[in-house]
Amino acid sequence: MSTVSSPEVQNVARRLAGERFDDYAAKGLARAYDEYTGRRRKAVGTVSLEVDGQPFPNLFAVLADPNAKFARGTLTLTGASPTPADWEFLAPFSSVVFDADGSAELRGPGNAEPRRAIARVLLREHFLVRSKAEDAPGATPPRMPGLIGTLEQGTTICRGLPVLPFGVALLFYLPEERVRYELDVVHSELLRDPRAGRLAAPRRVRRTSRVAWGLDRKLGRGHLSLLAARCLEVLVDSNGLTSIDLAHIFGGVRELVDSALRTLVEQRYVLFDGRTGVYRARLEAFLPPPAGERTPPVAPVRPELRTSVQELIAAADARAACPLCGRPMPVGTPQLLCDDCAKKVGLG
Description:
It contains 10 helices and 15 strands. By secondary structure, it is an alpha+beta fold. It has 2 domains: 1-193, no CATH class; 197-348, Winged helix-like DNA-binding domain superfamily/Winged helix DNA-binding domain (Arc Repressor Mutant, subunit A, Orthogonal Bundle), CATH 1.10.10.10. A hairpin with a 4-residue loop joins strand 10 and strand 11. Helix 6 packs across helix 8 and helix 7 crosses helix 8. The termini are far apart.
């Protein structure tokens, strides 16, 4: 599939926004397009789209067609990379069939058994059209009502505001975990996971769909910068990383990563261990409080004394690893902590 050019994206924006798409908005969209394409990431394959029974060359063509609702659709992976390293941190698939009820069927390569999942889309990099008058001091510019929803909801939002998506994340909630794929909409490509080749695969911790859904809802509010959101996703899927680790994963300037991490600490999504320089996600921040209870503020504490019951339950629920030291736990163990950590906090 061919790349969608900047003039083509401009034409889609003009069709959706009408007179609101003035010279000011056109220049802003052109800058956003150039910035996005200048940071093009490596892909593992190209994708083709069929929406409501009709093939489309790309997602922008779907947005430009008012008859395409995206209630049903099929995403097919073509020209997939045969290199296993390109698929690191990703679950291989050949196609995805989206149903009108918001569910989807993930079809694996070869004769793999299809898997049913709840499907959602999360807007990543995008451009929200604003005219010069709407962006003037004192004016009330259009606001995003939310960045996560079904494909049909996402299509409606993008047309209504309008929003031009450059990159989106497809989220599939399975019974035991959530899998995520990122699509480059401009080039119709499935992107490599940013951790591939830069973080040892055993350092990944698989979280439950319940934890992942809580995380995705936080990201869907759109209150975090893209880098902070990406750092948070990686931290939730690990037992802790340093700012050096994260700067290596995202290939950016460490000072920018440090600033993003400070934001996450201030918003109480992450805890920082000043002794080791390790940042850890507060998993309880992504789980709803018990019915009728409000989550009290949690003061930062030393990692070896993190005995918040809610946090420990969330960590144990997230998979079989000790939530304090990260040591793998025996399958089926009833304990919350490993023996060594239980002794340290007085539970052994």
